[in-house]
């Protein structure tokens, strides 16, 4: 009985969180009216674009050029770059844009992304704050759709749609794009049923009064933004037209480190806001949060139980022996592929194996960090290729 429990628990969590939950969203969404399409407001609100940066001399100029090219009235827009004590030419390059309205806030010592966002809050003047990263590109026409939805007074957060991009001939992490596309689809389904439970860290907007509240530096503000919005009786939504291009790092190991960091911070954030998982107080939002976040992350924690369960059944079951053998071969293949993927291009099926192995190992390590209470507010930005 214990062996079957160890095997079926992670499989059940996986099937529910990745397949049954989206199917239920789609089914119930058929009976809901599509989100309202807003026209341009009579006067665009004043916005602040917040850009934390650490040693981004290779990308900050291109990022600022793209932000200045956004289709939005220049007189209604503030751009604030918060340098997290950068030691390269980041600050120098940002100062070159001062005559075009770009502001620089330099922190005296490195403190991490969330702490940098906390420090910049008093300097933000817009009604709506746009949070983005130094290595992504927002399409010129993708800002206004994000701002239009704030004409709805029930919306506190609007998240953009990530589009994972890379170079086909040299890309070693193509499987990431499929997962990002899946995640964006789930958010669209959640939006149809009221709202999402986590915003895109690369590109999202939030009402200023929700953003300025201080938040623990070791936690994830983008994930928490939707949770904070719900605490204030507001919704977070995903806006499909607000597209941003997110270059993949191109390296499986780089993505592996990012996943460990972001999932560990996500688990800590979920624990910090755990009261929101009470369905008796927060209804459907709590069920979404449990289904989309907790159940999905529990897959990684319980997955090793499959191997233990198969090992318990193997002495009296040839089928269990074969599955145990296949699991072992798959693990070895995934580990080898992850090791080799950054050295030379591999066939797509092999890169998928590397992605699956890296994702599961990253999830297990993230749980280990979270359960030990190991917090690391100092973030190392993912270095992505230029787009």
Task: From the structure above, extract its key features.
387 residues, alpha/beta, Spore Coat Polysaccharide Biosynthesis Protein SpsA, Chain A, 2 domains, eight-stranded mixed beta sheet, 14% strand
The DSSP helix count reads 13
Architecture (CATH level 2) name of the largest domain = Alpha-Beta Complex
- Any idea how many domains? 2
Structural class: alpha/beta
Largest beta-sheet details: 8 strands, mixed
Our estimate of the beta-strand percent is 5-15%
Rounded radius of gyration (Å): 22 Å
Shape: globular
Share in helix: 40-55%
Instruction: Let me know the average pLDDT.
Output: 87
What is the secondary structure topology, with strand pairs?
Blueprint: H1 2-29, E1 47-53, H2 60-68, E2 77-83, H3 90-95, E3 102-106, H4 113-120, E4 128-132, E5 137-138, H5 144-148, E6 155-165, H6 175-192, E7 203-207, H7 208-211, H8 221-231, E8 235-247, H9 252-272, H10 279-302, H11 304-313, H12 318-341, H13 348-372
Parallel strand pairs: 1-2, 1-4, 2-3, 6-8
Antiparallel strand pairs: 4-7, 5-8, 6-7
Helix pairs in contact: 1-6, 1-10, 1-11, 9-13, 11-12, 12-13
